[in-house]
Each structure stands twice: as structure tokens, then as C-alpha cells.
Amino acid sequence: MPPASPELISPRSPRVAAARRLARRNFRGKERLFLAEGPQAVREAAAYGADTLTELFATVEAAERYADIVGEARAAGARIHLADEQVIADISTTVTPQGLVGVCRFVDTPFEEILAARPRLVAVLAHVRDPGNAGTVLRCADAAGAEAVVLTDASVDLYNPKAVRASVGSLFHLPVAVGVPVERAVAGLKDAGVRILAADGAGEDDLDDELDQGTMGGPTAWVFGNEAWGLPEETRALADAVVRVPIHGKAESLNLATAAAVCLYASARAQRASGGCRSVTES
What is this structure's pTM? Predict the structure, then answer.
């Protein structure tokens, strides 16, 4: 596939400067644009919908290696910029960039639209501050077949580059609402017929018992809290039940992303007891 442009973009180009600024939250919010780094994220952005991927910066080597992705980006309407490795390093927030950096429009979904779709499995991130954890929980929710993710107003920015990377493209797979107060999120989901389960290591109810009692087959939203101090009492009080993941071995606890994966898959299994699942072996 021939290069999209015969010349490398200048490091002093206004386009490079504009992309570099998107590493900062205030500029992302002002422009409603964010960065998607690496071939998987760029491919998913190009496939998401018309005009989502607006620009693609690629080294000559990456443009040749990922010629199919560059072609998909061009077909999606993205403007292609060939760039040297230094430009990519300046734009990228990773230590070892993979040669592709996309500029994308925000893709979050209004909370009301999520409620109108009557979701059966939802992950609510309340007070989650680590972007890597937020992106990983989003990826787990996608893998478990959740129909939506909600980030409360006390949680990290969905478009933080580390969160986008950790989602490994799942950001583009399912509706995500942002900036929703936790009280509004819980009340709206309850009104939509969704049972609210708060995940907490000190929960009164045991996940195994919930499964054994057959109480997890209906529409469910899991509320996950802060990595260090969990859920505040006022948030726990909003839930229909506060559930702990049982520790059968000697581990002190599970980290947030691991606990979220266990909870979401438990609900998915209960909801799809007679169905099948797709096995994924690649990370």
C-alpha cells in the first residue's frame, strides 16, 4: 500500500502540537478529542463509526507493517500523517510507542440512552481513580458481555491515555456513560429494574452464596469502589446487597480489576446458564 503522503509531517506542525496537547485532560475536554495509541485501538476506532477517527499519525515502518489498518483509517475518513519516530514519541504517552497514534472524537453515551436500552449487566465505577484499573475493568466488562459501563463523577477520566490503552479497544465496543453522580446512577438503574450489587471485601453477602441461591440471574449492576479504601458507607447503603468475593486461599485480598472480573463473569454465567461463551487466548 503506498504511503498516504509523500512527505513526513514536521515536528513543528500545528497538527502535531494539537495532538500533543491531548495528553492533558483540560484540552481533551475542550476539544472533545482523545488519543488512541497502538494498532488495536486504532483499528477499533476506525471501525466504530464514521468520523470517530479524525487523524492518524504513523511512522513509515508502521504504515507499511499495518497497511490494512492505515487503509481502514483512510476509509473511515481519517487524515493520515506520516511522521518520524520522534514525532510519534512526542505525541505518545507510552515508553515504547508502536508507531500508530490516532486522534478520536469522544464516544461516551448519555446515561439516559443506557437506561432506555434496559441493560442486563452493567459495571459502575464509583470512586475509581487509577486509569489503568478503569480501562481494565472496562475490558473485563466487555469480555463478560456487559451491556454498559458507567463512570461516576468521582472516577477517573475515561479518556486518560492510560485508561484508553488498558481497555485495549473495548472502549469502542460497548456504551460508556461518564460523569454520572453515583446516587443518580443507582436510582436510574433501579428504576430500570436492575438489581444493585456493591462489591466489597467486607461485604455481608458471599458471592458463592449468591450463586448457590440463584439470585444473580436477573438484570444486575455491580458497583466497584476505590482501589485503596473501597466504597464509602453512603454508597454501600444504596445497594441491594454488599457482596464479597470469597478468598479460599491465603491471599490477603484481590485487586480491583481481578475482583471485577470475578463478579462480572459470575453474573454472566448466572444469566447465561444455558448458553455458550467464546474462548479468548490472546492478551
Answer: 0.89
